[in-house]
Amino acid sequence: xxxxxxxxxxxxxxxxxxxxxxxxxxxxxxxxxxxxxxxxxxxxxxxxxxxxxxxxxxxxxxxxxxxxxxxxxxxxxxxxxxxxxxxxxxxxxxxxxxxxxxxxxxxxxxxxxxxx
Length: 116
Fold this sequence. Notes:
The structure is a single chain. The chain is mainly α. It has one domain (5-103). The protein is 58% helix and 0% strand. The protein has four helices and no strands. Helix 1 crosses helix 2 (27-46) and helix 1 packs across helix 3 (60-73).
């Protein structure tokens, strides 16, 4: 099941510890996280890594990485603990390479290689 932009926003809120699971984000947090999502989608589009439209659902295999990137974008706005920051930094560092790996189709050549 793919996630909508709103569901991504809620996950980013949880990731930043803005709300406990099951509670709603405040309106100003929704606005900031939506801006972060737009920035992340534009960045991924520039790198030819966004395989979905800005208003379309994010594919399951990419959700974790998109959430990490959007949360990282918000770290200047929201103070987070050092441990949370370190986990998020590690996840963010791996996000684009993992997205690239996941969206590139596995290809096996049907032409036999020649040994020169």
